[in-house]
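Hi F.,

I've been meaning to write this up properly since the lab meeting, where we talked about keeping a consistent format for the predictions we share between groups. The idea is simple: the sequence comes first, exactly as it goes in, then the C-alpha cells exactly as they come out, then a line or two of notes. No screenshots and no reformatting. I'm using this chain as the first example so we have something concrete to point to.
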Amino acid sequence: MNLATFRRTGAEVRTPVWFAAVDGKIYLFTAGESGKVKRLRHSSRARVAPSDMRGRVRGVWWDVAARIVTEPRVIERAHTALRAKYGWQMRLGDLFSRLTGRMERRAWIEIEV
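Output, unedited:
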C-alpha cells in the first residue's frame, strides 16, 4: 500500500508501507522520528492506494484520516495482525528492531477509510 501524507505547504509525500487491517481500520508502523509522523502530527489528512512491492500504485487513491496510536491495547492488536500477515519477515524485522533499540521508538498509525 502507498500512504500519502501532506507537508504544511500542501505538498504530498508518498511512501510504500506494510499494513494490516483490523476491524475496518488499517494499521502500520514506522520510525517514531520519520517525516510521515511529523506530518501526521500537524494534520490527519492522508491518502492511501494499493501498490505493488516496489511502491508502484496499482489502483485508486482514497482520502483517509490517520492518527498516531498510543494505546498499548490497540498497538498490540495491530502488531499481532502485522505478524500474522507478514510472518517470518515481520518477526525478523522485530528481532533487528529489538537488537538496535528501535522497537521502543516505533510509531503506530491507524487509518480510517
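Notes:
The chain is about 30% helix and 35% strand.
The radius of gyration is 14 Å.

If this format works for you, I'll send the rest the same way.

G.
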